[in-house]
Input
Amino acid sequence: MTQQATPTRPAPRGKLRRVLPLLMTAWLVLEIWLLVQVSSWLGGLTVLLLLVAGALIGGSLIKRAGLKALSAAVEQSKNPQSQQPQTGTSMTVLAGLLLIVPGFLSDLVALTLLFPPTRALWRMAGRRVADKALRATSAVGADPLADAVRLQEQLRIHRPDGKVIQGEVVDPEGRPSGPQGPDTTYRPPING
Output
């Protein structure tokens, strides 16, 4: 007699996954309504020119942020120990993408990502969300955001030269526990 596997219930969806489709639909309806209102006030051709200008500015922002990130990466590869200041390229790229998306509400959010005072508020909110996701006790694979934040934290642990040394702490027999002097035993160099 063979046993059949009982079907398991899928893991419950997170709060964000339940609400996100509704938020996206509301955003889209609001963008369309705002486009219709502004085009009735300014005219269709003016709105079209504004949307094209927003897309061009967004593309140039993304290009500039990419070049800035590339130059920072080249500088970091030349001197791995140097501490590079934050370039803010992720916020600039997001602002560029929002400018490319047709709509005035997305353009307004993009502008808040570009100005330093509001950019700091967005960064603070992002850190708060990332910290909350990091502290989440969900299983690996259950929450993609928590998995991404955990991976980023693990990558910070690695050495600047990219080498990771796996090891295990072993307490040799015969050594008393507690504070001791420096370990002066010979160890051969690690060849990598």
Observations:
- The mean pLDDT is 78.
